[in-house]
Amino acid sequence: MKMMPEFPFAVPDRLLSIADLLAEQGWAVAESGLAPEVLDQLERNCRALWQDEALRPAAVGRAGERQVVPEIRGDHIRWLDDCPPCAAQDAYVEAMARLRLTLNRTLLLGLDNYETHYALYPPGAGYSRHLDRFKDNPLRTVSVVLYLNSQWQPGDGGELRLHLPEGPVDVAPRAGTLAVFMSDSILHEVLPARRHRASLVGWFRRRPDNPLLR
Ligand SMILES: O=C(O)CCC(=O)C(=O)O
Ligand SMILES: [Fe+2]
To answer: What is the reported pLDDT for 134?
Structure first.
């Protein structure tokens, strides 16, 4: 039997706060805690992929009927698994592993793995209101967005808008900000931006055969 990869670490308050907020309200916005050099390198990677035309227009719709509809979703993406490895990406993946273990230990979510892609929204592009969990694939459980825009100014647009029962909450996509929310319940959208908007978007997934989650 394969055990969950487990590594001992002191859980920083920052990660515990994210877990508390998720349990309380279904979403959290926090500082990622990643070093400035790591954030810089990730931002450079995302922009270089765009310059090199190595990002592809993202599709919407269920398996079998995926299509590119820029009026609904205008970002361009590349999965991290498909990118040349580098130390900054390793640091990001490790930070996400720590967050995943913290959420499992505190909230017993049974999160098993993480899938993630770079995303670049050119000026004017957005993503209409949606949920991240697909009807034909219920494994995505917690969504995580790390923003990579060191030059972001108020008025640039591109906010993540969470549609909550008590009203909308907007998150500015400033470098280092982490937005975390439940994939099946938090409706959200990306407002069009005036400049290129870079991020890493990912999902903690459950195991399809987890007997505890049936
Ligand atoms: O970039 C964001 O703020 C959110 C992106 C998003 O909702 C998605 O890719 O599903
Ligand atoms: Fe989303």
So the answer is: 76
